[in-house]
Each structure stands twice: as C-alpha cells, then as structure tokens.
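Lay summary. Proteins are chains of building blocks that fold into shapes, and those shapes determine what they do. In this project we predict the shape from the chain. Here is one chain we studied, written as its sequence of building blocks.
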Amino acid sequence: MGRKPTPTAAPEPLPVLDAALIADESQALTEVGMRDKLQSSSLEVGKLVGRLESTLFLRHVADKMIAETFIQLRDDKKYKDLDFADASGNLRRLQTLEEACDALIGKSYRTCAEIAQNFELLGDRIFESAERLGLRAKDYRALRALPSDDQALIKTTIAEATDRDSVTDLIGELTERHAKKLAEKDRTIADLGQKVELKERRIHVLGEERDGLKEQLIGLTLTADASRKVALQKRDRALVELRNASLAMLGYASRFDQAVANVMLLGDGTAAMEAADTLRATYQRLADLANAHGMPVDFAEVVTPPWLAELGAVLPAAGETEAEAF
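And here is the predicted shape, written in a compact code that computers can read:
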C-alpha cells in the first residue's frame, strides 16, 4: 500500500510594489546626494579662493617689505657691517648692495630696485592700493615713463579705483598721448638742426666772400696802415671761427639735451643716476674751460652777443626747449 502524500502549505503572496513610493524615495535620496555634492564642491571652491586670497595678500605685503628693506639698506649702507655664508659655505663680509639683495632679501638688485622705485613713486598708501588692484611690472614701467602731471592723475585713479583695468586703460591713453608729443618734439628738433646747418653754410659762404674781398682790398691798398688792416683781418677771421664753433657747440648741446631726456624716459634708476653724473661732468668741464680763460660764467646773468641775437629766430633762448622755439 503506497504512502499518502504529505500535504504542503500554499506559498504566501508577494507584496505588491508601490511605484509611487519608490519614486518618492529615489527622488529624496537624489536630492540629498546632490546637496552633499554641492556642499562638498562649495567647500573645496571656498578653500581654493581663500588660499588664492592669502597668496595675493602675502605677495602684496612681501613687495612692500622688499621696498622698505631695500631703501633702508641703500640709504643707511649698514649691510657693510654684516657677514654671510657664500655658496661654498665660507663666511665673508658683504661688499655691495647687489650682494646684500641676494643674501638678505633673496632677490636680485634689479628686482629690488624696481620695486623700491615703484614704492617711492607712489608712496606707502597708494602703493598698497596698486598692489591690491594687481598692477604688474609693465604697468609700473609705463607709469614711470609718463610726465609728472600724468603720474599725479594716475595716482588719484589708483586711490579711487576698484579694478586694474580702469588704471591700465588710463595709463595706455596717457602713454599714447605722450608718445605723440615726443614724436612732435623729434620733428621739431630735426627741423631746428636743418635750419642751424643752413645758417652755418650761409655764414661760411659769407665769410669766404668777405675774406676774399679783404684780401683784394689789402692787395690794392698799400698804405701806411696796411699792417693794421692785416691785424684786423686776422681778428675778423678769428671771430668768425669763434662764432662758427659756438654755433656748432649749441647744436651739439641740443643733441646732448635730447640724449639725456631719452635716458630719463627709460625709467631706470641706475641709468638716470649715470645721466645726471654725465650732465654735471660735461657742464663742469665747460665751466673749467671758462675759468681757465679768466672768464667765469655767471648762469644767473643772461649774455647775448649782437651776432648771436641776429640768429635768435632759429636758436632757442636760455631755458627754452627746442619745441618752444618754434
């Protein structure tokens, strides 16, 4: 007789999935995830911005400290009392400001001098504003090349500006205007040179004609005062040579003045010092020559010989630039 089959319980029905509930929970999870991601991203961006702001602040402070330190070293020259270890580890005394910049500041002399030049040009407060606006080395160089009245306008703009572009746009506009003025001055100087050269040629021709006439007169007139006339002829020739030499020197003085101006426009402190020394040495040499002839020059007294007064239409007056003469 066979075994009876064991009865089995019927399986329980599976729960019905609620699609709406699943969608709501998925949406909630997605929003939480997005918020977490946004919060995390915002935190990272905030860190980067803070790090950048700190870096910029430190750079601005560092440039100011470099300028103040360089100026103190330059003016007091106390670096000559300091010892430092060179690349070989040997201890030796600082000899020059260039060595002091490398050893004490960690920057080259040229970099330190340029930062100090910017600091001295703008002053403490406006230099800080310029650094905060993010002015670059090329902006400072363009500013230093401008005339003093334009520099004053830029300083006012820096103190009131909130962004770098407003300052650099004004610097560019003033630089272009200044370049046009310099070009016009160059043309005026060139015209002056041509007029002076033409005048020298005319004087030379007239001198030769006069000399020829005087020689003929001396040959035809054999009188008792022949010796006196020969002496007068020599005197006149000597004076003509003196006047020609004076005109030539005045022409070179104009070129020398322009050469000095070109160096000053570079905005390089070292070059400007050399230009000042060269100018002083040149005019000191001229003063020495005057003293050697027993004719010291009083620059406060204006002296104009009659022959030079006749050329006043083509030569600048004392204290007058070439551009103003025309």
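What the prediction tells us: The longest strand covers residues 83-85.
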